Amino acid sequence: MKAFDGPHVENFVDIRDVRKVYSRRQSSVEALARVSLQVRRGEFVSLLGPSGCGKSTLLMIIGGLVAPTAGEIHIEGTLVREAQTDLGIVFQEPVLLDWRTSIENVMIQVEARRLDRKVYLPRARQLLTSVGLEDFQDKYPFELSGGMRQRVSICRALVHRPRLLLMDEPFGALDALTRDQMNFDLQRMWMLDPITVLLVTHSISEAVFVSDRIVVMSPRPGTVDTIVEVDLPRPRGLDTQETPEFSRYVRDIKQRFAIHGVIRG
Ligand SMILES: Nc1ncnc2c1ncn2[C@@H]1O[C@H](COP(=O)(O)OP(=O)(O)OP(=O)(O)O)[C@@H](O)[C@H]1O
Ligand SMILES: [Mg+2]
Q1: Do the beta carbons of residue 257 and residue 263 sit within 8 Å?
Q2: Domains and CATH numbers, the chain
Q3: CB of 31 closer than 6 A to ligand 1?
Q4: How do residues 40-73 score in pLDDT, each as one tens digit?
């Protein structure tokens, strides 16, 4: 049976009936109720849902940082039992070391994994260049804008060529214009090197812009409400957002949220 595992498995990430109940003393919160989801290799999938529906919880379970109450996650056919080291993770706030320049913040990942600096330094520089930070490689975090800092943290998450990139609301703190630019840059990086991406977002238009598929979640306890295939050609440009097709995706998803009472009026 083992021979069927490994690189040939169709479902790169296989989430099977995952449930999560956080319990402390008398109180308990059911964050996730039976979530099943399969993600293909190289696919860009967004998790979209109302606050508190368990998106971050699911991402942490996939990364092996939180244990599920029931169910299993398999990555490339292997059961997730502990923190996965072969990942890139980007959180809402860019966590950079103040005393290190952009390039040295990206290289933290290379040092922590004891990878060859000579091999990865050019890659780190190329990643920073690809997101418009060519001239900011030697600047310190205090010299960067919020969007620039988040770009550095995305480069850091990608420098070691992880097989899976998990992003939790990475652009939530940014203004709308910067956010559009970040989504565009992210798409471009992903098209050059299409790794499997799971992105948590509250933004319907962000999800439609970047995703191959959108997993729309129900309010807590989170379940998969519906999965939307986004059939818009790539690269998607800022004009994509003006097309009737784009608007139709946004409207359909809003309707799902209206059914659940997430959006009223
Ligand atoms: N460590 C924890 N201990 C207890 N309860 C928790 C813990 N983490 C999350 N929860 C609860 O689980 C539920 C889901 O939380 P989670 O952070 O996964 O939601 P989310 O979808 O990411 O929300 P948001 O969009 O606001 O970030 C919430 O009710 C939250 O209070
Ligand atoms: Mg969250």
Answers
A1: yes
A2: 2-86+163-259 (3.40.50.300), 93-162 (no CATH)
A3: yes
A4: 999 999 999 999 999 999 999 999 999 999 999 9
